[in-house]
Every structure is written in C-alpha cells, then in structure tokens.
Amino acid sequence: MNQRVTFLGLVVLLTVGGVILVTAIPKWRLEANMKKSQNNLRELALFGAHHVKPEETPKARHRDVSKIPTEIPAGTIVLPDTAPAERLSWLPTILPVLDQQRQDLARLYSHIDQRQPWAAATNQHAAITPLVVLLCPEKTPIVPPSQPAISCYVGISGIGFDSGSLPENSPRRGAFRYDGPTPFREIRDGLSQTLLLGETNYELGPWLRGGTSTVRGFNPEPNALPLIGGQFGGYFPDVANFALCDGSVRPFTVNTTAGVLLGYATIAGYGSDPLPGE
After folding, report:
1. What is the pTM assigned to this prediction?
2. What are the start-end ranges of the H helices in the chain?
3. Quick one: 108 exposed, middle or buried, by C-beta within 10 A (0-12, 13-18, 19+)?
4. What span, in angstroms and rounded, lies between the C-alpha atoms of 224 and 234?
5. How much is the CA Rg of the chain, to the nearest whole Å?
6. What one-character-per-residue DSSP string does 208-266 give?
7. Distance (Å, whole) CA 219 – CA 160
8. Is residue 56 one of the residues assigned to a domain?
9. Which of 25, 160, 169, 192 is deepest in the core (most CB within 10 A)?
C-alpha cells in the first residue's frame, strides 16, 4: 500500500513539475531573447560612432575603439547624384569594430566597395550575408540564402518619412541623417534622452541598403500604424527595445505616450520634455 501511495505521489509530482516547466520554459526563452536583442542594440550603439570613413586605409580597422566617440555616423555612405535608398547604409562603416568573435565582420568589410551603390555586383557577397548582430533572436525573419539579408534594427532619423533628409535646423530631425554625421554637440536634448536605434519587424529591408531599410523616423499621422507594436517592435509582447545615443538600451511599452516617444526621437526634444519612466 505504501509503495502504491509513494508511486502515485511521484506521478503527481512529475505531472505538476511538467506543467510548471511547460509554462515556464517559453517565459525563460522570451526573457533570454529579450536580453540578447538588447545586447545587439547595445553593441551597435556603443560602436556606432566608431565608424571607418571610406577614405581611411585598412589600418583604421585596428584603431583603438576605446577612444571617446564624438558623433553619430552619416545614415548612408554618400555617393554624389545617388539617392539614399541606392547607397550603402551606415552599417558597413562600423563592421570592423564590432564583435569579431561571433562573426568575422572585418573580413566581410574588406569585400565591400564603398565607392559603389549597395546593389553593385561587387557588393552582393556582403549583401546576402546575414549578420548575427542585426537579427533579433525572437521570431527571427527567414530570408532565402540567395536574397539580401535584412536588419531588425534601424537608425532613428526623427519624425516623418522624410526625416533622414531634413535640414540641420529642423525640429523634426533625429540622430541619423542620410547626408552627414551628427556631432554629439548638436544633440541638444542630451545623449541619454535621444533615440539612436530601434527594434522593428515592419517593412524590413537589406542591411547593406541605405534609405528606410536602415534609417527611418516615426510617423505620427492618425492613419499610421501604432508607434510601438506597429512601426517599431513586433518581436516581444507590447514592447519595443531602443538604444539611446549614450549607448544605453531601454524598452518602451505600448503605454508610452506619443509625446514622449516623439520627444526622444529628435535631437532637440521636439518641443516636449521626456517624462521619467513610462
């Protein structure tokens, strides 16, 4: 009798334990992927200002990246008479200083011809190469090997579809602009109050391509998708992760007001002061 009771108790214990594990494992996985995505954003943000200019020699890849950065790189590698969407994105400029242990990005950098548009034949080896640091580990989009690899993280250019091309004095201008870098001294609202990068699964484009594939602004129009969970985010329930210009990373929930988000999206605060917390 005692053996039967012990066996039944063991069965109940294992059943309850199994139910707990089935419930807990997805939560643990989601939390782990959230941290991985935040780490990707942090890596991109911390090295985002240590960009290699096209005219620099390969020796620049080995420079001391511990030096204090002074600017956000241009949102594209500028080519005269070439539209931003046809240029190379800003991402090739930081490949040599990203984590080389996960992927040999310095070698990939050597295969990119920065004097050519992103769609040039010489750049297609790089274009179809997925970059681990650019892929959110939760609900990672599947792209055929023969197609250009995408980025789940984009630079923030301010407010509006045209924000990447706005003049320097525009109140809608954000950290990234297509035609030139943004010195830290111009970020008047403070590095810790200004968005640099955002997590998105909306209209994903090639990581090597300039334009809205890799730099975009918030669209506050009434008929537009929600700012969080629509234009940005989409990987984690009711939240989107963003990196700020000081290298920190924080999540913004769907409860964050549009005023707060638009304030963070611009280098001048868009006329509104960001509120503490949510």
Report:
1. 0.84
2. 2-47, 105-110, 124-127, 258-265
3. middle
4. 15
5. 22
6. TB-GGGTEEEE---TTSPPTBTTTBB-SBTTEEEEEETTS-EEEEETTS-HHHHHHHHS
7. 5
8. yes
9. 160
Query: Which letter does DSSP use for residue 111 in this model?
Result: T
Query: What are 250's strand-pairing partners?
Result: 242
Q: Residue 156: helix, strand or coil by DSSP?
A: strand
In the numeric block, which tokens belong to residue 139?
A: 């609900």
Q: Does 277 map to a domain?
A: no
Q: Is residue 278 part of a domain?
A: no
Phi-psi domain of 150 (left: phi exceeds 0; alpha: psi -120 through 50; beta: other): beta
The whole domain housing 147 covers: 2-271
The 8-class DSSP code of residue 144 comes to: -
> Token pair of 195, please?
């968005």
Q: How many domains does the chain have?
A: 1
